[in-house]
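Re: your question about Protein RER1

S., sorry for the slow reply, the queue was backed up all week. Below is exactly what I fed in.
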Amino acid sequence: MESSPVPGDFIKPSEAPAWPPPASSFPRPSGNRAWRQWTPSRSEGDSVGDSVHGRPSVVYRFFTSLGQVYQAWLDKSTPYTAVRWVVTLGLSFIYMIRVYLLPGWYIVTYALGIHHLNLLIAFLSPKVDPSLMEDSDDGPSLPTKQNEFQSSIRRLPEFKSWHVVTKGILVAMVCTFFEAFNVPMFWPILVMYFIMLFCITMKRQIKHMIEYRYIPFTHGKKTYKGKEDTGKTFPS
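Result:
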């Protein structure tokens, strides 16, 4: 029985194993099997996000270009505040006429009203709640320029609120084309509940505005006027 080599022993060249090993030492496939190169079961670029030779697919490029065009039109409409809101009011009027002529879809209208009420509260609320800025140990502090700046920033900006309101109206209008959303409801109850919820929410918001003395409808930058020049000179 041959002993295994001990580390440090010198191995003669004749005793060293041959490399590479002979081909007969590898197992060969039995039967009719043969070695072949693996190929994918589906062609490249079938899905939306796949790419062919490093290039995005046609569907991905189409939606990307569509999103860029949509964002470009939004950027162009940013300075036209009055025109944007007039278009949104026109869409609201068309939606109300459609719901009136096709009696139904009351639950869709109620959900749209609740959605707009939440957006209105976010538009009227400051980005930083003034009640959280007060120190409970030291008591209320005097207003500073930093606090005044933070309270003048809305939680929901004007452009974003317009964008979300317009999308909500369009989604509600699309829902009126499907009978599945026409859930039978007793609409006077929904109207009464919405009016009650609107009054309670606005009352709480107005009390919050009066308590912390902030006005969400500021326009432009504050300007300060100095004393008028009377032309009088003071002797040195």
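The radius of gyration is 36 Å. The beta strands are 51-52, 55-56.

Happy to talk it through on Thursday.
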